[in-house]
Amino acid sequence: MMVYLILFYIFFPAVILFLTQKFSVMNKIGAVLIAYFFGLIIGNSGLIISEERKANISEEHLKEVIDKIKTEETLNSDELYKYTIYQIQDKFSSISVLLAIPLLLFSADVKRWFKVAGKTMLSGLLVTIAVLITVVSGYFIFMQDVENGNQVSALLTGIYTGGTPNGAAIKTALNINNDLFIITHTYDMLVCTIFILLALTVFQRFGLLFLPKYKTGTGNSEKENDELIAELENYDGILKRENFLHLLKAVGISLLIVIVGVIISMIVPKDFSTVVAILSITSLGIGLALIPKINKIPKTFHVGMYFILIFSLVVASMGDLTSIGNISADIFLYVVFVVFGITILTFIFSAIFKIDVDTTIVTMTSLIFSPPFVPVVAAKLKNKEIIISGLTVGIIGYAIGNYLGILMAYVLK
User: Within a 10 A sphere around the Cβ of 352, how many other Cβ atoms?
Assistant: First the structure.
């Protein structure tokens, strides 16, 4: 069972990517959401841990088992089984996130960040300010009496300034409970689905009532944008010999970064060690992206996302559907408040700073939902010129999301 579980975690994300590449419906749902779905089903089906064993050793009992390990007491068969499963899942979730962070950042064109059109960069900054305002104000409205409410705030900050990879990193850094993470992310998916539907239908007409129209000829060429979209969505070629060897080097460099980050974390108090490790790894990933030989390695972003799918699968399989089924009205209302609070504030800020409607919508999409949805929205807006600048803002979000999310957790705590 242990071997099957390890093989499932490593190789099933490839099946998910195949499904998203093969079927457009799956592609629209998104690989991460599909990974969560299958992880929850497998984790709660009794295939990993039978109902009998679950009854014999609960999550609370697991903490006692860990204490037994520390004191070298003997475990019974159920305890040993559950503890071994826990160790596999814990190590897989942590290592996959740590390796993913540098890989996602290696392909970032850091120098281009400073060349993005002024209005686009300003719009991205305004969305980020809107995120911080709504997350903090919403915390005091909905989350003060919720246990670990500051952790939910940290997750939303990271996700809405970057994306799922940032949420995964923040979960690891703050040791956030699996069920709390899945509940928050599930509500995020539900609410953001409504957001993206509005972005595809009514936002442009609404924004044109008080925002300037986009001036054509100020963005990138259609050819540049089409090439970037094709590259972003294409996982083919990862296993080609010429790419595979380079990607092995990239993974090796990422592993070295993780080791350095862990070493740095050892010189700070234990309570802050994981946070320092995550932020050190993020910083080193951005720094090495400036080295052309590393920056030009093909498909590093895609391999990073593969590790994020492993993380999503593992964490979901650790979730308990019985506890997730207990709807948290406070967290749900908080997510609704934050997503639509960001939207309203961004439209207001854009009116004040005279930012055009298309740029406003695309930067919101890139930060609130995720960069891969920028081409979808841009196509609906009939404006492909803004795709590269919109994606660039999203990649910057990946880079800063960890810092802002972790900072938010400590400020609100």
Answer: 8
Looking at this protein, which amino acid is placed at residue 70?
K
Please give the chain's pLDDT, 413 residues, in tens: 778 888 988 999 999 888 888 887 887 777 877 888 888 888 777 666 655 555 555 555 666 666 666 666 666 676 677 777 878 888 888 888 889 888 888 887 777 666 666 788 899 999 999 999 999 999 999 998 888 899 999 999 999 998 888 888 999 899 888 778 888 888 888 888 889 889 888 999 999 999 999 877 555 555 555 555 556 556 666 667 777 788 889 999 999 999 999 999 899 888 788 888 888 998 999 899 889 899 888 888 888 888 988 988 888 887 666 655 566 789 999 999 999 999 999 999 999 999 999 999 999 998 998 777 787 788 788 887 787 778 888 888 888 999 999 999 999 98
Give the residue from 105, 196, 188 showing the smallest Cα distance to 153.
188
CB 166 within 8 A of CB 409: no
Contact, 391 vs 373, CB < 8 A? no
With contact defined as beta carbons under 8 Å apart, do 337 and 133 qualify? no
